[in-house]
Design a protein that fits this description.
The protein has 390 residues and is α/β, with parallel strands linked by helices. It is built from 17 helices and eleven strands. A hairpin with a 4-residue loop joins β10 and β11.
């Protein structure tokens, strides 16, 4: 039994935000079917490299990204522009007692109105199953003047005001290679919203439509500086605030060209920082920067290993993989590639539940792998299945 055993989710999303949201829930026991199309481009399924040894009899393999985001899920091909394809979705959503699949949670990532035009929007499918929870995940929401615009993580973070105070005065905003709006906002807000909707559904018995907007979710990331400005304080600027380089909280280059991160905000941590640097307790940032350049990263790691200074190294991916804390937390599990008998190391699930821990049952399958198996259970003939998947 997983924490979410019994939840049945249809995932119509691509790229990162939606698939990561359903990955988190699949690891926790939810049954997830990814609905794909052979001719619908998804960067994830093409993101190199292919996993060596994952090729099927036709020579088609699976990328490491797809094997990660498809973990613990099944996948079917459905042509949503045909009556047969729409009927397949309706039957999947139909309650089990009525002969359907009982998938009463949907996550979709189309632009507003697309699911409605296809005939499988919230209103239409709620008639099939009133308990349906329908999560729409978009960049700019279901309403407002920008609702129909396309966007990506960099755009949502920029429009939220966050990037205007991030980076350096001389260079402006800085790319981090972290999809903050996609994962921390889009994925996790979808998960939280679905959990809340399940609890709500347990009371009146009907499922709501969830409008998860990634730009909405980045607004609170302005944090205390944003709240202070709204309350009458000064607008935050780059390298002027406590958390964006205006104080000791920053990155510092070492003698060997590596970097240390310093989060010594509280007085007791700053005192230990100065102790490790052999500086006066009132040292300024220039002194701190100069002192860090006098020793290598490994030397500073040794010095701060015995101090409570919130000073830690900026690790490479290789160093992170070999880090004892990461190993102890089980955050890089080896997961089996189904039907191939090989394993691949993947990014783990951060959820830790003592009574029902997450499981890594299998990595992702190639897209569409379970089409025939699932549709036959719903009563479709071979001819109908061929029409649905084309």
């Amino acid at each position: 039994m997983g924490a979410l055993t019994g939840l049945k989710i249809l995932d119509f999303s691509t790229l990162l935000p939606g698939p990561y949201a359903t990955l988190v829930m699949a690891d926790m026991g939810a049954e997830v079917i990814s609905v794909a199309a052979p001719d619908r481009t998804d960067l994830v399924t093409e993101w190199p490299p292919l996993i060596k040894g994952s090729e099927d009899e036709n020579g088609k393999g699976i990328t490491a990204a797809a094997a990660w985001l498809g973990r613990n899920k099944k996948s079917i091909f459905v042509n949503l522009k045909t009556p047969e394809g729409i009927e397949a979705i309706r039957r999947l959503v139909m309650p089990e007692e009525d002969g359907g699949g009982g998938f009463d949670i949907i996550l979709e990532q189309f632009r507003p109105g697309v699911m409605d035009r296809l005939g499988i929007g919230y209103e239409a499918l709620s008639e099939v199953n009133p308990a349906l929870i329908f999560c729409s995940l978009t960049g700019y929401g279901q309403t407002g003047p920008m609702a129909m615009k396309a966007g990506h993580d960099i755009n949502y973070m920029s429009r939220s005001g966050n990037m205007n105070q991030a980076g350096r005065k001389e260079t402006g905003p800085i790319l981090t290679n972290m999809q903050v709006a996609d994962v921390a906002v889009g994925s996790m807000n979808s998960v939280v919203s679905i959990f809340a909707a399940v609890n709500y559904r347990n009371n009146p018995g009907e499922g709501p439509h969830l409008d998860v907007e990634m730009t909405d979710g980045t607004i609170p990331f302005n944090g205390m500086d944003g709240a202070s400005w709204l309350g009458g304080g000064e607008a935050p600027e780059r390298e002027s605030q406590m958390l964006n380089g205006g104080g000791a909280y920053d990155f510092y280059e070492t003698a060997d060209g590596r970097h240390m991160s310093v989060g010594s905000l509280e007085p007791k941590f700053f005192a230990d920082l100065c102790r490790g640097l052999e500086l006066d307790a009132k040292a300024d940032k220039t002194q701190i920067r100069q002192r860090f350049r006098e020793k290598t990263l490994s030397e500073w790691c040794e010095i701060f290993s015995g101090l409570d200074a919130c000073a830690e190294p900026v690790l490479t991916m290789e160093e992170m993989r070999d880090d004892e804390q990461v190993k102890a937390r089980g955050m890089l599990p080896m997961v089996e590639i189904p039907e191939r008998g090989i394993y691949v190391q993947q990014l783990g699930n951060p959820m830790k539940l003592s009574k029902c821990p997450v499981e890594y049952r299998h990595a992702g399958y190639p897209a569409g792998r379970h089409t025939e198996e699932i549709l036959k259970k719903l009563g479709f003939s071979d001819k109908e299945i061929d029409m649905i998947r084309k």
